[in-house]
Specification:
The protein is of the alpha/beta class and 331 residues long. Helix content is 38%, strand content 18%. This is SDR family oxidoreductase.
């Protein structure tokens, strides 16, 4: 089976590439060549910018793929461009959406693929919903939509209160004995999925007619509280976690940038019904837990000084949020 993966070097797509090769698929990846990862030798690489529609149409002129898998489309314009580029060039277009698109506030458990899509808090999720709505109108291409939920690898810091790109601050705060904010009372349940487990099921959607014009989420079945994940990281570091629970609405009042990541995602309990993907996948797994990789995460950051970035602005606001919340409790 001949497939094209757009991206191929991210948290999820790296594992998907490896699994596809293991399944004897003919894999080509298309990306800008910016991020370098170890790829199996059989993988072909096309260097290009998927956002350049004319260049892509030229590149695809004499190519045909059984499946095109899009990991880096985030807006309706992105998927509209893809449909134009790959029309007549593939039997199946797989769009990676997000389980964060499911209805917020959460109204029912467990979440299924029939759970309504609505997220008034986070533009990322709103854009993914708009992508899905457009793709459901496409009539001349087989579309498969996949919704991952907080999928991680052996390099991802699992923290609820961070600024994108500055996640290392969570480790540094733990090392320095500084308080760690957990929204709410710390008991909300969060589903996380290792990318290797995700890939084990995902590959069975590729080129599978039973997956055409349908939607699937693929998540693990390991559940954690944010308190547990924070304690897990602290234990691996050999330190004590000083957790402070602060109501989510107070956090957002102080740190408006957290509205999307919290109200739109991580402040809710999320539990999924994976029955649908289990009927398709021949090897659904949920084997790897964060406890299995947390030491790898720490070693990765300790060996990568350039990744140890901290936003002083964000940390000052973080500390101010704690200070004012504690002051309000005393008054």
């Amino acid at each position: 089976m001949k497939i094209l993966i757009i991206g191929g070097s991210g948290t999820i797509s790296t594992y998907v590439v490896r699994k596809c090769v293991e399944m004897k698929m003919d894999v080509t990846i298309l990306n800008r060549g910016i991020h370098h990862v170890d790829l199996p030798k059989s993988v072909k690489i096309i260097i290009g910018d998927i956002k350049d529609k004319q260049a892509m149409m030229t590149l695809m002129k004499d190519n045909f793929y059984d499946s095109v898998i899009e990991f880096v489309a985030f807006t309706k314009e992105d998927v509209q461009r893809d449909i134009e580029v790959f029309k007549g060039k593939t039997r199946q277009y797989i769009f990676i959406s997000s389980a964060s698109a499911y209805h917020k506030p959460v109204e029912d458990y467990p979440m299924t693929e029939e759970t309504p899509l609505k997220n008034p808090y986070w533009s990322y999720s709103q854009d993914k919903i708009e992508c899905e709505e457009y793709l459901k109108t496409v009539i001349d291409m087989n579309i498969t939509i996949v919704r991952p939920s907080h999928t991680y690898d052996n390099k991802m810091i699992m923290a609820v209160m961070t600024r994108w790109g500055y996640e290392y601050a969570h480790i540094q705060r733990l090392k320095d004995g500084l308080p760690i904010i957990i929204p709410g009372d710390g008991t909300s349940v969060w589903t996380i999925t290792h990318a290797k487990d995700f890939a084990n099921s995902f590959v069975y959607l590729i080129g599978n007619e039973a997956a055409y014009n349908d939607v699937f989420h693929i998540t693990g079945e390991k559940l954690y509280t944010w308190d547990q994940l924070t304690q897990m990281m602290a234990q691996a570091l050999g330190v004590k976690a000083h957790i402070i629970h602060i109501p989510t609405d107070f956090i957002i009042q102080m740190m408006p940038e957290m509205e999307g990541p919290l109200f739109g995602d991580k402040s809710w309990s999320v539990i999924f019904d994976n029955s649908k993907i289990k009927k398709i996948s021949q090897e659904y797994t949920s084997n790897i837990g964060y406890e299995d990789v947390v030491m790898d995460v720490i070693k990765y950051y300790e060996s990568q000084p350039e990744k140890q970035k901290i936003s002083e602005e964000y940390e000052e606001l973080y500390d101010l949020t704690i200070e004012l919340y504690q002051k309000n409790l005393r008054s």
